[in-house]
Every structure is written in structure tokens, then in C-alpha cells.
Amino acid sequence: MIKLLTVVLVGICFTLKLNAQQNIPLDTLHWDINAQTYILENYKGKDAIYIQRGLAFLKDTKFLNGTIEFDVYLTNRQGFPGVRFRAVDRNNMESFYLRAHLSGKPDANQATPVINGISPWQLYFGPSYSVAYKYNYNDWTHVKIVVNGNRAQLYLDYSTVPNLSWNLVRKPQEGEIAIGGGGVAPMHYANITIDKTKSEIIDFNPIARKPIKGVIPEWEVSDMFEETLLEKTTGLKNLINSRQWGKKIKVEEGVAANIARQAVLRDGTPKNTVFVKITINSDKDQLKLFEFGYSDRAVAILNNQPIYKGNNRWRSRDYRYLGTIGLFDAIYLDLKKGKNTLLVAVSEDFGGWLITGRFKDKEGIEVY
Fold first, then answer.
1. How far apart are CA 288 and CA 117, in angstroms?
2. How far is the C-alpha of 67 from the C-alpha of 201, rounded, in Å?
3. What pTM was estimated for this model as a whole?
4. In the predicted model, what is the mean pLDDT of the chain?
5. Running DSSP on this structure, what letter comes out for residue 93?
6. Burial level of 125, CB count in 10 A (0-12/13-18/19+)?
């Protein structure tokens, strides 16, 4: 009986230890590393992993609430080192990363969900999801993320107050943890620890996002097709008629609807485009201004006639253009009395598969 009790107590202590702070060894026994290049080495006095274009997922550990900490040695080259957590699969998770080359800029870092393989930072941008911070390129940067429920906080370089507080977009769900990132520049990571017992959120004051007044709340979404099919206008009617409908997307943050909620971009096929649709009932023939935004590229079609083509991709308009979503474009719609159908073919590369729009003047029309 005493022997059995001892075994039980040892098991309890081991479980408690796993839930408390763990300094995770950096080796292939503990990490599933999927990267273009990686090196396990001692760097600047610390056992480190050097990762380029990829992620290392921690094996046999699930995370819901708690604290994640690590050190990263930044350079001023373009890179996006960070952490992924609550990864329910390899395409859906929460994410925080540093824009190592943008020291001191308002977008020096980024908190964003990953939804069906897309990290929609072109929707989740601004002071609600990033904070200006001047990085040190001559020493290790310490990153600490505290997660509790649908809230998270960032502490940089052992700050005693949070540098950033934000609301998590995804439903709280236990998942994997990963370190690493994209971009050309590889980075070194060291001293990775997890403590599931420390999830206290303090001074939680996230910056509220200002919604777009009068934005269209919902769009219907078609099945996916290849963007090149839009090039031949003679086949446009057949392309439209052959689509399948029924899925809907709602506006998030009062700003834009996320197409990735209903379409998986990288599903093994070359398809990268959907139609989104609204119907406009007009009480007479009239011209109405429609303000809209999209990501990445769009073709607008009113009553089966193409009327607009545009590109809002990252760096499409100048070298620092971000392609973030907003009402940055507008077209005049020649509405006929009765039912009018507005389609927007939206194509995506990365950063957010998005659509938004509004009629500032709704007199004489009904939109659904």
C-alpha cells in the first residue's frame, strides 16, 4: 500500500512539474522541425536553434493557457521570428511575430490568428494588434506571451508592464506550440520555456478597433476557381453560371469579411479565387457610388458585366504599400430598377483574403 501511494505521489509531482515552468531542450527529440534550413548550435553563449523559413513544433505538448517565453537574436534584415500557439492543426492557430527589420515602426510586430492557412494581418492591423518598439540588434531580445481565455499580452525585454494587450480571435482551444517564422533572414532562438500555471492577465487595456460605419454585414461566397479564367470576358457568363453557392461570410471587427473562413486557399489545387455576392434592389434606374476594399486582387461585375479590375496586393502600389483592407476604392454602379447582382471576384496570394464595402447613400436601395 505504501509502495502504491509513493508511485501515485511521484506521478502527481511529475504531472505538476510538466504543467509548471519547463525549459525545453533544443533538439530533434523535443521538436518537429520543418524549415528550409536549421542549425542546432551554441550562439552568443546560449544553446540555440537557427531557423530559416519554417517552424519547429514542440512534440507531445498541448497548450491552452499560460506563459510562453523565449529569447531571439534579431538582425536588421527582413525576418518574422515568433511563436504560434493553440495550433489545433498546422493551418489554424494563434500567432505573434516580430518584424525584425521594422524597429521603432508602428508595425514592428504583429498579433494575428491563422485561419485555414492564411495569416490575415491585412485585416488585423494597427495599434490593436501591434506596438512600436525599438529592437536591439546587439543582444538577445526576450519575448514573453501570457495567454488566458480570449486574451493575450506581450512583454518585451523583461518589462514589468505589458507592451501590448489584444483579444484573441479564435475560440480558446488547446493546441500545439511552435517557434520560427518566415522571411529571408533566419534567426536564433534560445531559452524556450512554458509555464501553464502562470496565466494572470494584468492591466488589460486593448486598443479598440474603430468599425467602418454602414459596412455591408454579410456576403455570399462561391466555390473556388482559378484566377486566369477571368481573363476571357467572353466566357465570363459561363464561369458565373457554373459556380456553386450557399456559403456566407460575416464582417469581422466591423471592418471586412474574411473569405478564408469558407475557402481553403492551399488545398492542393491551383485555385485562388472566389466570387462574393450581394443583391441590390433599386426602386428606379439610378447611379450609386459603391465604396469597397479587397485583398489581394478584384474584378467587379454588375449584372454580368465587368466594370472594374484592381490590385491591392502587398507592395502593388509602392515598395512600402501593405495592402491592408479599407474603403480605398470606389465605383459608380449603374443600377436598373429592380434586382441587381454585384459580384466581386477576389483572388488571394497571402496576408488576408478579404472583402468589404458600403453604400454611403442608401436612399432608394435595399442590399442583401
1. 36
2. 10
3. 0.91
4. 94
5. E
6. buried
> Residue 5: pLDDT above 60?
no
Q: CB atoms < 10 A from the CB of 14, how many?
A: 10
Contacts of 175 (CB under 8 A, 6+ apart): 62, 63, 64, 85, 86, 87, 88, 89, 93
Tally Cβ neighbours within 10 Å of residue 79. 24
CB of 265 closer than 8 Å to CB of 280: no
Give percent above pLDDT 70 in the chain. Answer: 94
Output the nine-digit C-alpha cell for 194.
512554458
Predicted confidence (pLDDT) at residue 261 exceeds the cutoff of 80: yes
Where does residue 246 rank: exposed (0-12), middle (13-18), buried (19+ CB within 10 A)? exposed
Which residues contact residue 252 at a Cβ distance below 8 angstroms, ignoring those fewer than 6 apart? 123, 169, 258
φ and ψ of 292, to 5 deg: -155, 170
- Going by DSSP bridges, is the β-strand pair 92-98/80-89 parallel, antiparallel, or unpaired? antiparallel
The dihedral of CA 121, 346, 267, 279: what is its sign? positive
Of the chain, the percentage scoring pLDDT greater than 90 comes to 91
The answer to whether 12 and 150 are in contact (CB under 8 A) is no
